[in-house]
Amino acid sequence: MARIVALGSALQDLYLIDHDDFIATKVYSLSEKSHESIFGELKIGSKVDIDRLSYEVGGGGTNAAVEFARHGHESIYFGNIGHDAAGAAVLNCLDEEGVDTSYVTYAPRKNTGCSVILLDTHSGERTILTHRGASATFDNLNEADLDLISPDWLYVTSLRGDMNTLLRFFEKAKEIGAKVMFNPGKLELAEKKKLLGLLDLVDVLLVNKKEAAEIVPGTILTELVSHLGNYVKTVIITDGSMGAIATDGDKTYRFGIYEDLKVKDTTGAGDAFGSGFLAHLAAGKSFRQALTFASANSTSVVTKLGAKAGLLTGTEELHEFPIQEVR
């Protein structure tokens, strides 16, 4: 198995779960184009009784770290928390999962990041109110720690647009011979010129279709994956219920969702896909097998409440699903 560092946010997720007040309802703009609002049953100034509360641990960095540990890899988490109950909950979760928390840093005078999630139990969709807290910045983290760890892989989710910290960690990873998988967020995408410069240091890039179109020209998946392939050898572009496309520089695959199951909560689906792919690939599985597991892992996560409950271990028996090589 491999040694993998997961770098990214740590949050406590507070779910507010209700069967009728959070039902998505259609509202209309001035142009008469409809869209959905999850707040259709909530009125300003009202008091709403919630059916259930659930406290979970989330954040892209911790979600990935738990997947790697469940897969049997040596998983190390890099990120910031505060000296508070939410920070203790993060550490307890990671410790129970067997994640190395030696490099977790306490951010002075900041609370641990927290998300309040309003969950529509009918569709599994949610609205998330997030206070980033200690996970708002990452410039205090020290890339020299990678020298001590000597990881095989560095897996990085959004660092809130901190391009300097990304560059420091990516360059150090290359210096010590570690590979890099990167799943950027909207603040990294907003720094397009700097992001393109970073891609030379990335071995695997994971984005969704909309994000890909912000980086390179193209409107269809085959165009986007081809253009991104000029920057990164291995590229994965997801497209929600339409599946995904992926290339390793040799073969390109187009595939659908693993199973069409009832969705309970979509939180963490993207993290499950990305970390599941790397967990399987780092375990010696083929590119196609890693894509299959990534899709299965993402499908499993959305059937459970929270971003971690449905994460798979890699020992499950997986069935065939629609995946086709694109020539």
CATH domain class: Alpha Beta
Number of domains: 1
CATH topology: UDP-N-acetylmuramoyl-L-alanine:D-glutamate ligase
**What is the arithmetic mean of pLDDT?**
93
**CA-based shape:** globular
CATH architecture: 3-Layer(aba) Sandwich
CATH superfamily caption: Ribokinase
Q: What's the gyration radius in Å?
A: 19 Å
Total number of helical segments? Answer: 10
Helix content: 25-40%
How would you briefly describe this protein structure?
This protein is of the alpha/beta class and 327 residues long. Helix content is 30%, strand content 25%.
Element layout with pairings:
Elements: E1 3-7, E2 11-18, E3 25-28, E4 34-37, E5 52-58, H1 60-70, E6 74-81, H2 85-97, E7 104-106, E8 113-120, E9 126-131, H3 145-149, E10 153-156, H4 163-176, E11 179-182, H5 186-189, H6 192-198, E12 204-208, H7 209-215, H8 221-228, E13 234-238, E14 244-247, E15 252-255, H9 269-282, H10 287-301, E16 323-326
Parallel strand pairs: 1-6, 1-10, 2-8, 6-7, 10-11, 11-12, 12-13
Antiparallel strand pairs: 2-5, 3-4, 8-9, 13-14, 14-15, 15-16
Helix pairs in contact: 1-9, 7-8, 9-10
Describe the 3D structure.
By secondary structure, the chain is an alpha/beta fold. It is 30% helix and 25% strand. It has one domain: UDP-N-acetylmuramoyl-L-alanine:D-glutamate ligase, CATH 3.40.1190.20. It has helices spanning 60-70, 85-97, 145-149, 163-176, 186-189, 192-198, 209-215, 221-228, 269-282, 287-301; strands at 3-7, 11-18, 25-28, 34-37, 52-58, 74-81, 104-106, 113-120, 126-131, 153-156, 179-182, 204-208, 234-238, 244-247, 252-255, 323-326. Strands 7-6-1-10-11-12-13-14-15-16 form a ten-stranded mixed beta sheet, with helices on both faces. The longest helix is centred in the last third of the chain and has 15 residues, at 287-301. The protein starts with a strand and ends with a strand. The model has no long low-confidence stretch (mean pLDDT 93).
